[in-house]
Amino acid sequence: MYKLFCDSNCELWYKTVEELGLEVIRMPYTLNGREYFYDMGKETDFEGFFAAMRGGAVPKTSALNEYAYTEYFEPVLASGQDIFYITFSHQMSATFNAMNSAIAALKEKYPEREVRTVDTKTISLGAGFIVYYAALKYKEGATMDELEAYVNELVPHTATYFAVEDLTYLYRGGRVSGVSKVFGNLLGIKPILCFNDEGKIVNIEKQKGTKKALAALRGYLNAKCSELDKYKVFVLQADCRQACEQFVAGIKEDHPEADIVVQPVGPVIGSHCGPGTIGLIFHAKER
User: Fold this and answer.
1) How many other CB atoms are there within 10 angstroms of residue 136's CB atom?
2) Domain 157-283: which topology?
């Protein structure tokens, strides 16, 4: 027997998490001096969070420590069960150093138990996409070996693209230079970013204006999507519902058969991408 873990940076909706029976490691963020742990949208004030950001608040995110991971994992191991944890990209956070230390200590204490982790090499609903379909396999009774093989096959076919409204937040995270930020915002430049095969964010093109940026996102879906009859399309919006509705309408025009799931961006991811971001996740020929 084993338990399937994910973390809140996969951003699956809380009702979906409950239906799938997932164990969730909640990632922290701080806003106006108060620390929170993302609850997958259950009681999250999304509008308030992004309104605070638009008003000048600078939320912070942080890594979990070794003790926190031990608190999540040890009760499961002590009960005689193993752990399979599907993580967000290890390139995005130092938190996995603490996780590895916790796992090493727990393996010494529970040598008969197994803790297995798989890196999705993406984040937000990119990771959530992989967790969702892995959880369906888990509920069907897949072994750990079967589940690991399935996830490793799905990772290179999970495309995560997004367009941001304001370069300031990426600049704070070291994704763009100060000069690019100033002139990009003045000129209305909207960068299109995605995750590469190593799990790093890369800027693949720039568009002038939101309309062209969203058209570019649709272009990637049209060019690269595969098996839309089998996999959902996930769309994320960070306090930009109207633009998102228009974006989704365009996808439905292109792909009437697509099963589209729309969700808000959570505070941890939102701290880095900022309000006005729209994300697109789908099964692709290649990511």
Assistant:
1) 12
2) Hypothetical Protein Tm841; Chain: A;domain 3 (3.30.1180)
